[in-house]
Structure prediction request, 327 residues.
Amino acid sequence: MLNLKAMIEILNSFTNPYFNTALEEYYLKNFEDNCFIVWQNSPSVIVGKHQNAYSEIDYSFINENKIDVVRRITGGGAVYHDLGNINYSFITKAESTKKINFALYLEPIKNCLNKLGLDITTNTKNGLYCNNKKIGGTAAHLFKDKTIHHGTLLFSANLSNLEMALVHKNDLYFDKSIKSVHDVVTNIVDEVKLNISIGEFKTLLVKNISDYFNVTKKHKITNYENLKIKELENIKYRTWEWNFGYSPDYTLKNTFTKKGLTLNLNVKNGKICNIELKHNNVPIIPNENVIFSTINHSKNEIEKVLLQNVNFKIYPFSLNDLLKIFF
Prediction:
């Protein structure tokens, strides 16, 4: 078994999801010691590396509620984060270059939850369940001789926002991306009989991990590391190209019957390569494939094209109506 007794705790109080996702990649690729991090994010949806971000979210709800969308480097499905979540990451030397030992990293997490009187089970995808309701998901990634295993725990998250932000769009988007599995979820605070705050739970979780792996050393993020993480955040994790454009090629087929709008859209490498946008079966924009050709499937670029080429005075719909059909 992999010896993790020399594990170090990385102290991270940041709640910026772009920064925190960059932080994980930075320590995976630049930190030699085995380490773990317990952290939180402000409201955000974190999508898996091989997912179509648009097909996993309610785009209007996300924008209206200022919920960030960030793609991570691990696989699996999309998850919702807010300050009611506690997230954890293990970054270690790989036990195997082909397989990750999920059970090893989940053991101290389950022990912590058991101490709160919760009976925890796992499924084949290493999700954590209490009373047949999901309280946490996990994902992992191998990089050379290193591995990152991380997960999220729903402690007192806004479950209404979670349900509204994460949606099934398999009837609109057609692709080969990894699809999220939507389970019935619950918060830990609603399942425990003890009166415990999220701060107390976070402390308990850190202690259980530290005791399990005999962690005695803590590491504060240095100024140099902070600078490098922010650089990675800006050049990768804050970009449309990574968070949305990295999605596998896809087709979008959408219809607003009451408005008489239909859209068939093909996207490759994040760019529109073929489009049929019609009102009552009549193209809205002449030479639409030329005008839309090679622009990103992004709200800003599409809005610019529409404003330049559509005379909304002659149609019974608004710019907002037309934009919605693109997502």
Observations:
- The mean pLDDT is 95.
- The domain at 250-324 is CATH 3.30.390.50 (Enolase-like; domain 1).
